[in-house]
Amino acid sequence: MRINTFILGAFLAAQGLTAAAQQVERPRLVVGIVVDQMRWDYLYRYYDRYEEGGFKRMLGEGFSCENTLISHLPSFTAVGHSTVYTGAVPAIHGITGNEWTDQLTGRKWYCTEDTAVQSVGGSAAAGEMSPRNLLASTITDELRLATNFRSKVVGVSLKDRAAILPAGHTANGAFWLDDSNGSFITSTYYMPELPDWVTRFNRRKEPQQLISKSWETLYPMKTYVQSSGDNVNWEGTFSGEDAPVFPHKMKDIYKKDPVSLRATPYGNTLTLDFAEAAVNGYDLGSGNATDFLTINCASTDYVGHKYGPNSIEVEDTYLRLDKDLSSFFRFLDKKVGKGNYLVFLTADHGAAHSVGFMQEHNIPAGFVQDKRILTELNALLAERFGVNKLVRSLMNYHVNYNLDEIASAKLDYDHVRKETVKFLLKQPGVQFAADIENIGNSPVPEPIKSMIINGYNPNRCGSVMIVPKPGWFQGFEKGTTHGNWNPTDIHIPLVFMGWHVKHGASNKTVHMTDIAATLAAMLHIQMPNGCVGEPILPVLGQ
Fold first, then answer.
1. Minimal CA–CA distance to 305: which of 100, 69, 76?
2. Fewest CB within 10 angstroms: 77, 232, 273, 362, which?
3. Are the C-beta atoms of residues 342 and 30 closer than 8 Å to each other?
4. How many CB atoms lie within 10 A of CB 249?
């Protein structure tokens, strides 16, 4: 009997050791790449000119979700990054714009501002940042939680918000560029001083090296057949330039305007070089737990804003980014091992065609004149209700009211909103004006109505929203912008490649909120706590 007990105990112990030795199968490293302002059609607009190792490799080896849509308004940078990584809509995760107006106090907030922390490695203004305004967990947070914080998470971008929000609340580090010193910095939210590898990288003065020569086209100008001419009226210029033409003499421009680096392809090169340094510096993908690197290639956004989607500058930027991605994937192949890492590429939003471009080709387009509308709306409401400046701002296409004034004057808030809607519907370029608190009775059609609801956080959004006509937006005459419900703004790329991803493509509609849910399923971890998305089954091979 004693022998049998011994044998049984030994057997159970052996089984326990075997079970302990078995681990959940996960990739060594997940890399999330968000290409800022990348419209879905850019995958194919320049396809013939891409080399084999970049976008073509992703499409040729990976799985492409060809009809990935944003399901919220407005479609802005901080909102998109937050939605990608939380799987939540702005109504839930709270990042309703790059900035917003607090509806109770009237205070204007930047999405990642945090005066409770200090800058590390840069100026105070550039470094007082954290993810504290993000109300939900991210997929990167959930990975850290699932591995009892053994997983390492790092966020990288030129933009503070695009490094901080994807990396989440529990990241090992988030790093962004301080234009004042040309260095990557962080804040005391993450660490008291920069890691040695970041200091070494900054000492290389790579921004100055990259910008030391003129921005010439990568190929002969005449080969840029997908773009408008090199000098058109709707393109912007760098400070000191007489016309938006190549070559852009960046060395001279950068000396006077350090921010100018961002609006060149070299900003993406810098970002991916720093991402490689982060992989080496944190030894990502080499441990027993899955690591996660979030990357935002932001220069595509700056170039797009300045020149518009049909410019040679945008085409050249994507051709150069393609080469940079190819180099980065080769680096990961060598460092982590091909098949050992999972990468996904998407965008935070797209971009509208420049108004001037559309008008030249007889397609309806124009500008919603928000400054004029604000002035005239306040004048109308003052006449109707006897109170001046009832509207604080028209931010993020929302009408932000002075709620204190409305309350102290004992005004009928419903009546104020109704008068606002009537006024807005008469304005050039306005398709709909939605009273969000009465959205059920609004004539706004789906899916726009749901997108408005998904983007509405009552503490951070005004209660009336402007929806422009197709081709219209709040912006400037030069370049372009984004923010609306139109396919140009909300149809984004989504391609998965690498670990356990089978080659394929699907035109079934999926949404930005589905990305985090899909990653959670692949990693066998909990979805973020505000996630409303669903796993994309074809990506999972189901």
1. 76
2. 362
3. yes
4. 14
Query: Which residues does residue 68 pair with via DSSP β-bridges, in sequence order?
Result: 492, 510
* C-alpha closest to that of 366 among 431, 300, 446, 443: 431
Q: Is the separation of the CB atoms in 510 and 68 below 8 Å?
A: yes
Dihedral sign for Cα atoms in the order 72, 353, 233, 260: positive
Q: What tokens appear for 284 in the block?
A: 């990502």
Residue with tokens 């990348």: 38
Q: How far is CA 190 from CA 44, 117, 164, 170, in A?
A: 39, 9, 10, 9
pLDDT at 22: 65
Q: Could you give the residue ranges of the DSSP H alpha helices within 187-308?
A: 196-203, 206-210, 250-256, 266-282, 299-307
For 528, residues 6+ apart whose C-beta sits below 8 A from its C-beta are: 85, 86, 87, 88, 136, 137, 138, 139, 141, 142, 516, 520
Residues of the chain with pLDDT under 70: 1-22
Q: Quick check: is 105 catalytic? A: no
In terms of phi and psi (left: phi > 0; alpha: psi -120 to 50; beta: otherwise), the region of 466 is: beta
From the candidates 5, 68, 77, 294, give the one annotated as an active-site residue: 77
| CA–CA separation, 208 and 254 (whole Å) | 8
Phi and psi, residue 539, nearest 5°: -65, -35
What number of other Cβ atoms are within 10 A of residue 305's Cβ?
20
Q: Is residue 296 classed as helix, strand or coil in its secondary structure?
A: strand
Listing DSSP states for 29-87 in one string gives EEEEEEETT--TTHHHHTGGGS-TTTHHHHHHHSEEETTEE--SSS--HHHHHHHHHH-
Angle at 228 (CA atoms; ends 222, 229), nearest 5 degrees: 60
* Residue among 118, 170, 174 at smallest CA distance from 149: 170
Segments of 338-421 assigned E as strands = 341-346, 366-367, 391-395, 398-401
What is the structure's pLDDT at 381? 98
Per-residue pLDDT, 4:
52
CB 1 within 8 A of CB 27: no
Domains of the chain: 29-359+485-540 (3.40.720.10), 369-427+430-468 (3.30.1360.150)
Are 195 and 67 in contact by the 8 Å Cβ rule? The answer is: no
Alpha-carbon distance of 94 to 89, in angstroms, equals: 8
Nearest to 241 by CA among 250, 230, 228, 232: 250
In 3D, which of 291, 236, 311, 302 has the Cα closest to residue 35?
Answer: 302
